[in-house]
Amino acid sequence: MTITEFIKTDVKAALHARGRLPFKLTLGAMSSHYGVSLTPVRHAVDELVEEGVIRRKENGRLELVPDALKGQVVEAPQSESPDQKLDEQIRQDVIARSLQQDTEYLREQATAEKYGAGRTVVRQVFSRLAGAGLIEHVPRCGWRVRAFSEQDMHDYLDIREMLELRALDLARDKFDEDELHQLLKANRPGQGKDRSLLDFDLHDCWIERCGNRYIREFFARYSPFYNALFNYAVIDEEVKREMAREHCEIIECLLERDWKGARQALSHHIREQRSAVSRMIDYLNSRKKAS
User: Which of 19, 141, 166, 167 is deepest in the core (most CB within 10 A)?
Assistant: First the structure.
């Protein structure tokens, strides 16, 4: 079950059982309640609106639809399953292999034995990773990890910067101030012993609202692979703190309607991804040599 599915199911279960929600029906309040970024909340709300459980008023605010679930059987969502934990473990292993350009085939049976899981479950995990572009299935051979290419990364970031800046321009009048303040809370550089907070889904805020389907399709097709690598490259608190600072700078510029400043901050942030990945590769190579 994805985070979006969990939120949607939990909202419906709460409404079915009590007829009300334990939080205000706003994106920010839901994000705080579930402890997640705004992106899965936004997707869950969109699906609930489509199902007629929630509706958007003319002023953009959300409200519940009375008796929308009347007569339906609604079960509360289950907590994280062992399969979800296995999914994350294998994903981390695959990303590390990709960055080290280890293209040795992954075998379903060997992976199942390594993690103490069933072969069918492992095959399902591999299929999801293939959907994200991290591996590919080669008949009669197994699953091959997509090797990281530094030149491909540079080419991708060149196009990403151009398209994402355009998305930011197109979405500038579609930002909600309350939502931006919520994003600011979700991206907080740590101070002292406090660890940093970092919302990896921040960029979806303008990509989803830009109104250009070609931009959205580019990121839907190519971002999963690189986002997985970039997120994995946040190896320590220092890197996380710097990324949180960069996120905050972008959001603060948007709040001040400083469009030029927001563009400059976003451009700088995207370009910094190169060095973050390079540091991660050096780190993995040093660990490999040490072992």
Answer: 167
* The two structure tokens encoding residue 222: 């190519």
> pTM for the complete prediction?
0.71
Residue with tokens 């706003």: 26
Work out the pLDDT band at 231, boundaries 50, 70, 90. confident
DSSP string, 168-224: HHHHGGG--HHHHHHHHHHSB---TTPPPB--TTTTHHHHTTS--HHHHHHHHHHHH
* 165 contacts 171 by C-beta, under 8 angstroms: no
What torsion do the CA atoms of 249, 253, 258, 262 make, to the nearest 10 degrees? 50
CATH number of 3-64: 1.10.10.10
Domains 3-64 and 82-145 share a fold: yes
